């Protein structure tokens, strides 16, 4: 059985496929046989974040790849040699298939097994995130310890696709008609609101900025089908996740490890998009006033006892009554 998996214009990514890269880059990507950590910035939307707390062993054995388009490459402030900025190897991508940078970002996000055909495991992080933990620790925590092949965090707030769709419309994430059409299609395919009846499934809505996976046929099939939904409908991958997951789970015993979003925040830190940083830089710094002196609780301020005005007035009156009179008589 053949399953279509992105790259409409060609069978292999890299040349004339809508996601073109240099031969040297493709060769390097094929040499990655272990773990790959990947991210992407298109449309100069974010600033490259350097991972922290990475062991020397990980730096020597893990492939770190950052995909950029020509606009992002021209915008890079950091000069780099040998196609590297810090631990990231920069891969320039040309001939992008979509005008929407977010949709283009779904290609490396969901199709890493096609870009790195010999990699065994991958960790995807959105361009706005800073990795602050060693990738091997993340793989151990969310895949190996759980005997899982795919892990993604739940949305921090929403569990229901219908609620997520309304939130997307309210925030203007995509045009309402397209979102309505997509959700109605999934509803006809059997999508129902999330409830406890779906347990042990804990959520229908992921926080898709991080994906941890083993590159095996079943997880590869899942991300291929997931990408096809993003290509067919809206770029809001949270809306299509559960339908694809449930279709595969109905025919196999494959499951997804959906962990708490607070756990995700332990190993990645969210940064501001570049346009937000520029806006913050334009704002005037807030006025800083010195704090008031501390109040000791015994009527004194700053260690000096404060005497009330009423008491001073009483003291003056009392002193006038008890002042010794001086006689002016003649002795």
Walk me through what this model shows.
This protein has about 325 residues and is of the alpha/beta class. It has one domain: Alpha-Beta Complex (Spore Coat Polysaccharide Biosynthesis Protein SpsA, Chain A), CATH 3.90.550. It is built from 13 helices and 12 strands. The strands form 3 sheets. An 8-stranded mixed sheet has the order 3-4-2-1-5-8-7-9, sandwiched between helices. The chain is globular. The N and C termini lie far apart (about 135 Å). The C terminus is likely disordered. It comes from Hibiscus syriacus. This is F3H9.11 protein isoform 2.
Structural topology:
Elements: H1 23-30, E1 35-41, H2 56-61, E2 62-68, H3 70-75, E3 84-85, E4 88-92, H4 101-110, H5 112-115, E5 121-125, E6 129-131, H6 135-144, E7 150-154, H7 161-170, H8 176-188, E8 206-214, H9 217-232, H10 237-249, E9 257-259, H11 261-264, E10 268-270, H12 274-282, E11 300-301, E12 304-305, H13 309-321
Parallel strand pairs: 1-2, 1-5, 2-4, 7-9
Antiparallel strand pairs: 3-4, 5-8, 6-10, 7-8, 11-12
Helix pairs in contact: 4-9, 7-8, 9-10
Biased composition (Basic residues): 308-331
Domain TOD1/MUCI70 glycosyltransferase-like: 1-273
Region (Disordered): 289-331
């Amino acid at each position: 059985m053949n399953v279509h998996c992105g790259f409409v214009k060609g069978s292999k990514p890299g040349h004339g496929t809508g996601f073109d890269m240099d031969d040297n880059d493709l060769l390097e990507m094929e040499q990655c046989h272990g773990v790959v950590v990947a991210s992407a910035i298109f449309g100069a939307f974010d600033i490259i974040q350097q991972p922290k707390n990475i062991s020397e062993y990980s730096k020597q054995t893990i492939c770190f790849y950052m995909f950029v388009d020509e606009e992002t490459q021209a915008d890079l402030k950091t000069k780099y040699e040998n196609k590297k900025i810090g631990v990231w190897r920069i891969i320039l991508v040309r001939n992008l298939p979509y005008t929407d940078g977010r949709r283009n970002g779904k290609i490396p996000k969901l199709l890493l097994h096609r870009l790195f055909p010999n990699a065994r495991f991958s960790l995807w992080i959105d361009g706005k995130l800073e990795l602050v933990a060693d990738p091997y620790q993340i793989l151990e925590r969310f895949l190996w310890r759980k005997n899982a092949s795919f892990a993604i965090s739940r949305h921090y707030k929403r569990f229901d696709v219908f609620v997520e769709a309304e939130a997307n419309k309210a925030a203007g994430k995509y045009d309402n008609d397209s979102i309505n059409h997509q959700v109605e299609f999934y509803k006809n395919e059997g999508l129902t609101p999330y409830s406890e009846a779906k347990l042990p499934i804990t959520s229908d809505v992921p926080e898709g900025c991080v994906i941890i996976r083993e590159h095996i046929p079943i997880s590869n099939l899942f991300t291929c089908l997931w990408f096809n939904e993003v290509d067919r409908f809206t770029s809001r991958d949270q809306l299509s996740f559960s339908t694809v997951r449930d279709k595969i789970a109905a025919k196999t015993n494959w499951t997804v490890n959906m962990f708490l979003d607070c756990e995700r925040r332990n190993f990645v830190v969210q940064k501001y998009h570049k346009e937000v940083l520029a806006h913050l830089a334009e704002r005037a710094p807030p006025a800083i006033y010195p704090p008031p002196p501390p109040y000791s609780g015994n009527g004194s301020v700053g260690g000096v006892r404060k005497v009330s005005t009423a008491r001073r007035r009483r003291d003056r009156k009392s002193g006038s009554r008890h002042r010794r009179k001086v006689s002016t008589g003649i002795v």
